[in-house]
Amino acid sequence: MNPNRERYQNRIELLQGTLDMLILQTLQWGPQHGYGISQSIQGRSGEVLQVETGSLYPALHRLEKQGWVTSQWKQTESNQRAKFYRLTLAGKRQLLSEQARWSRIVSAIAGIMKPVTSG
User: Fold this and answer.
1) How confident is the model at residue 6, as a pLDDT?
2) Rounded to 5 degrees, what angle do the CA atoms 27, 89, 16 make?
3) Where are the domains of the chain?
4) pTM of this prediction?
């Protein structure tokens, strides 16, 4: 099988809004720059989820516009200038809301996926 095709088939498409929740969750562990957020999501998902820069930065800008994250330019460990993002109080509240929504979605999908037993 073509390796590029296999890689594409193994990608998991995120439900709309899920990326925002993952970013907010990642920032709950502390401020990070974009690349760090991406690496954290990839690592904590067991290398299953990869966030492309074309999706990550528009999401970060959207979250910042909503007031759920703030950003500040700082030096990285490798002495490069990068924008670090931090979760705001409003972002913490939004994360709680997103987590509740995610739990409802997971329960709903699980209800559909489990086999019906006749009694």
Assistant:
1) 53
2) 55
3) 3-113
4) 0.82
